[in-house]
Structure formats: structure tokens, C-alpha cells
């Protein structure tokens, strides 16, 4: 593909990203002399005409979005069976890289970034487009520092059909909403949930949930409450914490209703960035008796009055014993300090080595007087390249004593899942099978004269395709026989017309009217001859008598 020119205009320069269904290249627009990004569907995705129609329709829907914080889509086309999408090229870091570089962001910087993302979502939602995969990897920074949201090409359009081009992981599990994890259709509140998780990661430097498998991680989004961010970083303003907690409610009805509401609260927090301030839209119903949706502080104990055990007379009685106890405590403290000089072992935080090569991680641990375990554990990971460190045990940030043995978990690349054959299955059976494998199902319902209603008759990708956890499988579910033109029954005998209707799964409704020349025969019919009808539809017959 490198060196090829598409549509006599877009020259492919180099590959810059690859997913399960598409590859992304850096290209050059020869007409306008500008650098562009070109997303190309893989060959195995282009063999299905219905799939291609959906790709083209929804790519055009995404192209209609125009906003300073949304990556623009310039063109959509096809050449010799190669289907492609031409987009704005953003030559900068993504938000995930930026967070790792800075460890965590200040509240004010995180608010500014979140506002720009929310503004992009407000525009998209107003156009009837749901992004469905808001994550730091899809948030890019231009050279001027402006936020750009990308990959609206894998969004859900207003008609509810799922676009399947884009990255191999669609709806990343670390940021997925509870309803998406349950296999339900994503809505506006799903995007706001994911944005809340991204906001959480920016101010704390970590995501709220982690697990060994995508399925286990998805269950945490459904069942577990997040740890409030101020427990990780006390300096986070209460207003920021309230916005995050509002956005990540399990019940979508308890989240922000629109991106505009979230923007109002972000403006409030930006202008009044101090503790004890609750943004106007951030209240939500909690499971406890506190229905205010705010974090309550423990009550201050009431002072005892002077007539009780703290009266002057009682204090004088206990003064000498108290002084003796204090003196003894001082002596014991001095003794403990002397002994601790001999017994104390220095403590240190486990460093962040995620993404480093194994040798660099080992050297960093040794420099800090920690001991890398001789036994290395190898695990699958979809982001970290083969041979680099995925995580440590104890985890990064944990305070341990020097000379502590640290386990290293090293990436052995993505975990491939062999896509099963789902043809002949029901939609419910297929969803359960894919969920067990860590894959996501996207149903497309179409009429099919040959396949019983409710049965799957086609899938993309097909059987035995190598997928990654979180990949999407499009299944085509039969809705039974589609519309067909009804025959001209005028002149048929009553019994013949009824027999025809029943053979075609239509319901006859017979009325009679006196007629000299048409007794026992159909004189009129509704729907009229040639009009399209569906199985199960009523057909009125007027029969002479």
C-alpha cells in the first residue's frame, strides 16, 4: 500500500497505526499539498456489500461533523476494491502519552482538556452521533496544544447502526460504560461516562478499575463503585471530584443529561476552584441516606461543659499522674528512636516501569535498591509491545522497604481469539458466546426470505479470524421474509384467494356485497394489486354474493 496513490490524489507515505479492521497511513494530498491521515479497510472486511454500504453511509455521517476539537474527515472513497477514509492529520501526542509523561495533571489543566472534549461531544450529540470509544488514545494534541477528538468513524450514528471501521478495540474496556459492558446500545450518557473516567485518570494518574481480563474489567464497571479521586490525591478540588462522580454513575439516568450540563459544571469548577463548592449539576442520588450527592465530612464532636469531667477541680486531681505518664511516654519515645536506628529499613515507592524494556526496568529497580525477581512472568497485552514491561507486583506507587523483591510482568503481545462460527445461532446465543471470549457483538437485522426469523446467517469477520479482546463481530440476524408485491386477486374465487393469502402468511378479512355477475368471486382487494405487503399483514377482500 505504501507508495500507492488513491483516487489520483492521495499518496500513501507510511503506516502509522493498525487495528483489527483497518490500517491508518500518513499520506499526502497531491492536490492541496497537505499531509493527511488515510484509514483503509482491510481486505477481509471488504467482501460484504452490506458492510461496505454501512461503512460509506456512516463515514459520511461522521464527515458532516465540523468542530475545532474534532478531527475533520475530508473524503471517503473506493478504488479497485480498496475502501478508504481521508482525515485531518494531527502531528502530536495523544492524551495517554501525555498523562504517562507527566504522571498526573493539575486540576486546572485537566479541566481545560475535559472542557474541549465535552465541547466536541456536545457538537456530535447535537448531530445525532455517539462516539462510543472516548479514551485518552483517541484524544490528540495539535502542535498548538489544541485538543482534537478522533475516531468518530467508529461511532454509532443516530439511526442506531454500529459503524465497524476503526481501531481493533472498539469501546475500550478500561473506559467502557456499564451499559456497553452489558452489550446494550450506547447513548449520549455512555460518552459522558467514558469522559468521566478519562477525567479521573488525568487528575489521579491512574484508571479506577484494572483486571487481568477484559471480561473481569467490564464486570467491575457494572458492579463496583470507583474510589473517589481525592483519596488518591488530596489536593484535587471537591468541585472536580463531584463532577467526576456525577459522570461515572452506574445508572445512566443519574449522570449528566447532556454534555452542555457537564460544560456548565466545568466552567463553575474552573472559576471557583476551591474546596467545599458543589457545581450546580453535580448532585446525584446515592445508595445511602445522603441524597445530596456530595461527600460528607464527619461531624465535629460537641465540647463537654465545665461541670463535667473536664472541670477545673477534676483537672487538678489528675495533673500529677498525667505529667508522670507524659514523662514516661517521652522516655519510651527516645528509647524507641535509639533502637529504630539499628532496626529501621528505608522505604521507597515502587517506580513506574510500564512500557520500558525488561533490561531498563531491571536497571531502574536495582538503582533504587529494589530486587527484580529472577523469574519473569509473561502475559498478553494489547498496548505494550512484545518484550516491554506491562506491570509490577507490588504495583507502581506502593511503598515498600528497600531490598524488596519485585515481580515483573512482560508483554508477549496481543492475545488472539479465534472468532467462532455463529451462523445458525440465535442473537442471544451469539452474544453469550462472544461475551465469554471477550468480544463485542454488533447485530444487524435484515429481511431474508430463506432464513428463519431470529437466526444468524452471516458474520464479519468470519469464522477462524484472529481477533483481539474487545474486538467487534458484526452478525446479520434474519427478520424473516421481507416485503413483497401482492398478487391481483380480483376475479379469484373466494376459496382460491384465501388459499393464496394463507400460503403467503397473509391474513384474509372477507366482506360480502350483493353482485349479480361476481357471486363467489373477489371484486375488490386492499392493499391493491402490486402493493408491497409483509407476512402477517391483514388483506381485505370484497366478495360478491
Which sequence of strands runs across the widest sheet?
Answer: 1-2-3-4-6-5
CATH superfamily of the largest domain: Transferase(Phosphotransferase) domain 1
Beta strand count: 24
Rg, Cα atoms, Å:
32 Å
Low-confidence stretches: 155-171, 287-310
**Tally of helical runs:** 12
Characterize the biggest β-sheet.
6 strands, antiparallel
CATH topology of the largest domain: Transferase(Phosphotransferase), domain 1
Categorize the overall geometry: elongated
User: What is the count of structural domains?
Assistant: 6
Q: What percentage of amino acids are in beta strands?
A: 15-25%
Q: How does the helix and strand content classify structurally?
A: alpha+beta
Helical content stands at: 25-40%
| CATH class membership of the largest domain | Mainly Alpha
- Distance from N terminus to C terminus (CA atoms, Å) equals 74 Å
CATH architecture of the largest domain: Orthogonal Bundle
Mean pLDDT: 83
List keywords for this structure.
Transferase(Phosphotransferase), domain 1; about 550 residues
Q: Could you explain the architecture of this structure?
A:
With 545 residues, the chain is α+β, with helices and mostly antiparallel strands. Helices cover 29% and strands 21% of the residues. Strand 3 and strand 4 form a beta hairpin. Helix 3 packs antiparallel against helix 8. About 8% of the residues have low confidence.
